[in-house]
Amino acid sequence: MKVDSAGLHVLSREECIILLSSTPIGRIVFTDRALPAVQPVNFCLDGENIIIRTTTGSKLAAATRHTVVAFEVDDFDVQARTGWSVTAVGHARAVDDSAEIARLSALPLTAWAPGGRDHFIVMQTEQISGRRIQR
Question: Distance between CA 34 and CA 48 in Å, rounded?
Answer without folding.
Answer: 28
